[in-house]
Amino acid sequence: MNVMSDPNASRKGWLSLLAGSRAGDVARRWAALDMAPAYTTLRSPEIGGVMVRGRAGAIGAPFNLGEMTVTRASVKLADGTVGHGYVQGRSKDHALQAALVDALMQTEAADAVETALLTPLRDAITARKTDRAAKAAATKVDFFTMVRGED
Description:
This protein has 151 residues and is an alpha+beta fold. 43% of the residues lie in helices and 26% in strands. It contains four helices and three strands. The protein has a three-stranded antiparallel sheet with strand order 1-2-3.
């Protein structure tokens, strides 16, 4: 699907960012945000499993790769905005914080949440990827062929 034609592209982006961030990073940024929105829990954080599917070469027939543990939660803010959070692993706090951030990003608090929480999380993920790439590059071996003097 074309991203430009998807009205939920930005929401998918922040939900993906929250799901892919470390639970400790989200917890630290959430605490620093210092927001305590009034909310009710629609779905208490619960742990479950999902089947992960894959494709060979991204084009082959789909196959079951294995199972993964996920935690999900849903909240409703006092103004009626609903937020959902799905995260890998067993962190109930992470899922609840992701749901709260999802709900807040749909309100007038979105700019503050983006600046104080999402942008630093994005930067942390970029730094980890850069560090991992640098470590991998340090192990790179260049093979070359020497021409012997034989005719």
